[in-house]
Every structure is written in structure tokens, then in C-alpha cells.
Amino acid sequence: MPRTIARSLATATASLLLLVGCLVLSGTPGAAAAAGARHAAHCHTGHHHKHHHRARHHHRTRHHHAGRHHHRARHHHHKRHHHANRHHHAKCHRHHHKRHHHKRHHHASRAARVLHAAASRRGAPYRWGATGPRSFDCSGYTSWVYRRVGVHLPRTAAEQSRATRHVSHRAARPGDLVFFASHRRVYHVGIYAGHHSIWHAPHTGTVVHREHLWTAHYFVGRVR
């Protein structure tokens, strides 16, 4: 009896050992495969994260460079626009200054010629209705003087006042016409000579001469 039990125990032990060995042999490849799969998945995930990080860094770098390029382009455009505006304003200022200088020179030149023509008839006698060159009335004298410089004025003092641009006493310049009126009726005209004086042909019994203005009741007309 004891021998039979011993044999049964030995057989059972051998079978158990054989079963365990089979399980170990059959389970090892599966475990290795699972471990390999987990390792591969981990590597893939790490590679994916690394690639995503590089892509985000590259995108940020491109965006940063694009922003810097856009800022430089805007700054360059603004600078060019500023220089263009400065050049345009400088050109306009030079053109305006040139026109203003030319206009002043033209007026000064014409005024000098007007005063020269006015002085050339000094001493000519006054005669009503006369237009020169030997004798004059007041408006005949002013129209004759301006014809010498190529400007044709109307015949009478009233018409000449309507043909000029009125300016203030303080703005009067040599060569302007000076009108005298009573009750809005213009009755006399002379040529402003500067220093508060005029050239004129006053009335019967007088001659053309330069005279200091004797009243403040006058107005000034500038010949266009």
C-alpha cells in the first residue's frame, strides 16, 4: 500500500512539473510579444510627441519671422511715404515761394515803370477832358500813365474805381490808384507814389505834380 501511494505521488508530481513547464514555454512568447508591442507603442508615442513639438516650434518660428518681415515692410513703407510727403511739401513750398517771388518782382517792376511814366509828365497843365500827352485831366492822366506800361484803364475816375481791386490804406503800394469821393461819387483820382503822397493832375490852373495826401478820406484801388 505505501508503495502504491508513493508511485501515485511521484506520477502526479511529474505531471504537475510537465504542465508548469508547458505553461511557461507557451506563455513566454506571448509575454515577450506584449512587452515588445508596449515598447513599440511607447517609442511611437514619444516619436509622435517629438515630431509634434518640432512642428509647433517650426510654425512659431515661421510666424515670428513673418511678423518681423511684415513689421519691417510696414516700417519701410511708412518711411518711404514720409519721405515722399516731405519731398512733395518741399517742392510745393519752393513752387509757391517762386511764384510769390515772381509776383512780387512783377509788381515792383511795373510800379517802377508806372512811377517813371507819371514823373515824366511833371509840369503838364490841367485841362478838363484832356488825355495827354501835352495836357490832362485827372483820369486822363492816370489812363495815359498806365498805357505806357501796357495796361488800358477806363476813361473816367468812377469807371477806373470799379475796374480795380480795393485794398486798405496800410496795404497801399506805389502804382496803386487813389480815389476821392463825396456822397459815394468819385470825383478825383491820382497815382500813389509811396510815403503818403500821390502824382495827379488836380484842377484847372494847376499842373501835374507830386503832392502829400491832404486827407484821410480816400480809398485805394489796385490795378489788376
What's the topology here?
Blueprint: H1 2-120, H2 138-147, H3 157-162, E1 165-167, E2 177-182, E3 185-194, E4 197-200, E5 209-212, E6 219-222
Antiparallel strand pairs: 1-6, 2-3, 2-6, 3-4, 4-5
Helix pairs in contact: 1-2
Strand and helix order: HHHEEEEEE
**CATH architecture tag of the domain at 110-223:** Alpha-Beta Complex
- Which range best describes the helical content: under 10%, 10-25%, 25-40%, 40-55%, 55-70% or over 70%? 55-70%
Strand order of the largest sheet: 1-6-2-3-4-5
Q: How many β strands by DSSP?
A: 6
Overall mean confidence score, pLDDT: 77
Task: Please tell me about this protein's structure.
The protein has a domain at 110-223: endopeptidase fold (from Nostoc punctiforme) (Alpha-Beta Complex). It is elongated and about 175 Å long. With 224 residues, the chain is of the alpha+beta class. The chain has helices at residues 2-120, 138-147, 157-162, and strands spanning 165-167, 177-182, 185-194, 197-200, 209-212, 219-222. A hairpin with a 2-residue loop joins strand 2 (177-182) and strand 3. The chain has a 6-stranded antiparallel β-sheet. The chain has 3 helices and 6 strands; from the N terminus they run αααββββββ. The model is unreliable at 18-37 (pLDDT under 50). The longest helix is centred in the N-terminal third of the chain and has 119 residues, at 2-120. Keywords: Hydrolase, Protease, Signal, Thiol protease. This is Cell wall-associated NlpC family hydrolase. GO terms for molecular function: cysteine-type peptidase activity. Residues 62-81 are annotated as: Disordered. One of its GO terms (biological process) is proteolysis.
